[in-house]
Amino acid sequence: MFRPNITAMQGYVPGEQPRGMEFVKLNTNENPFPCSPAVKAAIGRVCQSGLQRYPDPMATAFRERAAELFKHEVPGITPDWILCGNGSDDILTIVTRSFVAPGGLIRFPRPSYILYNTLAAIQGAESETVDFKSDWTLGSAFTAANERLQLAFLPNPNSPTGTVIAPDKVAKLAAALPCPLIVDEAYADFATTNCLGLVAENERVIVTRTLSKSYSLAGLRFGFAVAQPQIIEQLIKVKDSYNCDSLSIAGATAAIDDQAYFAKTRDAIIATRERMTGALRGLGFECIDSQANFVWCRHGKRESRDLYQQLKDAGVLVRYMNYAGWGEGLRISVGSDEQCDLLLAKLGGMV
Amino acid sequence: MFRPNITAMQGYVPGEQPRGMEFVKLNTNENPFPCSPAVKAAIGRVCQSGLQRYPDPMATAFRERAAELFKHEVPGITPDWILCGNGSDDILTIVTRSFVAPGGLIRFPRPSYILYNTLAAIQGAESETVDFKSDWTLGSAFTAANERLQLAFLPNPNSPTGTVIAPDKVAKLAAALPCPLIVDEAYADFATTNCLGLVAENERVIVTRTLSKSYSLAGLRFGFAVAQPQIIEQLIKVKDSYNCDSLSIAGATAAIDDQAYFAKTRDAIIATRERMTGALRGLGFECIDSQANFVWCRHGKRESRDLYQQLKDAGVLVRYMNYAGWGEGLRISVGSDEQCDLLLAKLGGMV
């Protein structure tokens, strides 16, 4: 009854979202700060005017404001360069369905976002991973010709490592690839560079963003893609007609309109990230310099899995990740200063 | 770059959702009443507690309440029999991706929901329509063997006709079909029967519902499927991890908890529907008896397209539909009594 690729595949398992019990939750890169008060006000206004009508299928209000916001980064951008989605996961699904046929191949780095593998499996396609080099860039294997290659994903900053490939290097990867390149910038707001500018130069570059992390809106589900209009025009065919609801469109628009709040909370997270990285190193962890809102680390003497479990028992959730054939470690989200202090205190008693 | 089926296809065009200008909007089967006040209260509570965390991936709160609500209709139902989606369109996409491979065949009645054709095209599959018989049931052509047949959709009540195939007849169709049958019950709350009970008897029957129409929540995007747990378990693999947001889960749960409000508004719509049907006939329209929140009609002497345009010019939006090779007509949503009176007054001056 089901397609064989569906029956055979394992479903994607998102990071633990415990209900009921209170954890210090540093496992899914949520923002410790509440969203801008302007978001709540906008949602309240929509509730007041009623929910009985369908939302704007194209989320026009958001696209207009986002085009304005990015006008210095993307020369020539208009609302037609933007596609909104029910979280950036929705966008990743749309691009996969648009470009990848069963039997096709999707390429992405290892280690990176595990979901790409699931997207390939649902589509009946194959995944191919290319290991990062020791400097966290990607070599020629990432752009190697393969007649079945239909899509490449590059999370940048990458998860779980928090590393960034510089835009000029990404431009070269995109130019060498025989297929579209999705630059998944879920964490770009915490980095010093991004690849938005490449979109204007190469129609095969699609940048995806989410409001889940840097705008504290994981619960709202809102993400978007930036690409040239002739690309967006095709992607629109593949999305569900009303993929964003009225509340999320209003909330997301209000969120990007409050850039002062955004900058303040982002700067606080970056400051805590730097402090946390230093403190973890002081406790004997090997940490990679991160440009995201999490830190990837391994302790010199303790097993990562054991530390994950000890922390969980102590009420602190972090993410233990194990990439077969590559290695394992802990991905710890940057929380508030108080959460960071608590984490460090607990770890101090364990290592 | 794009898959050939995507480039070749036309995108689905949803009913007009005009922004800015005020219409009496009777074109997309929205509910004229606001949603239950309990929905707004629940959304307010979620806003208050914050949106920075991811939602419950499985919308457990809703599934628990829905299983309770349907326990008399579906023997043995538990939350595991329910899958929530970002509108029932999300559910229709999930089942299509789960069962249909490129080159496969999807079968559905003509005239019915145009989106099924789009779902097939995105998947690279073919559509086959089977005309309704003169009594609005479906004959053996609907269940005929075809080795490429992978999925059948039956909207029940059907759109645009508002007609219903009785559950015992649907059971026979499902038993005779070589593939799963999706009974799309978007409008079932306005009908005298439904097919929920068939789910317990046949694992290949999947019933889909939406809160857009009968719960006045088109703007919230929330729908769900009811099927046996071993079916739901596979469908979960295909959905986006966090396909429903925190606000919609809370709002939808509050909506189905307020059955008194639901019954009151539904009964009002059914009463207006009966009155509107009689009045349209009095104006010379041929109307089919409807079990949904809209009426399908054609005037004996006037062209449907002309009436659509005249009504639009007069500030009243209805849906003009033309099914190639089958026929055309107007699908008019049942609004409030005031909206209905205005529609009838305008039509009275036109026909």
TrEMBL record, chains A, B:
* Matching SUPFAM superfamilies: PLP-dependent transferases
**Alphabetical UniProt keywords:** Amino-acid biosynthesis, Aminotransferase, Histidine biosynthesis, Pyridoxal phosphate, Transferase
* Aminotransferase class I/classII large domain boundaries: 23-347
What pathway is this protein said to act in by its record?
Amino-acid biosynthesis; L-histidine biosynthesis; L-histidine from 5-phospho-alpha-D-ribose 1-diphosphate: step 7/9
Check the record and name the PROSITE patterns matching this protein: AA_TRANSFER_CLASS_2 (PS00599)
Q: Which family does it belong to?
A: Belongs to the class-II pyridoxal-phosphate-dependent aminotransferase family. Histidinol-phosphate aminotransferase subfamily.
Complexes and interactors: Homodimer.
What's the name of the protein? Answer: Histidinol-phosphate aminotransferase
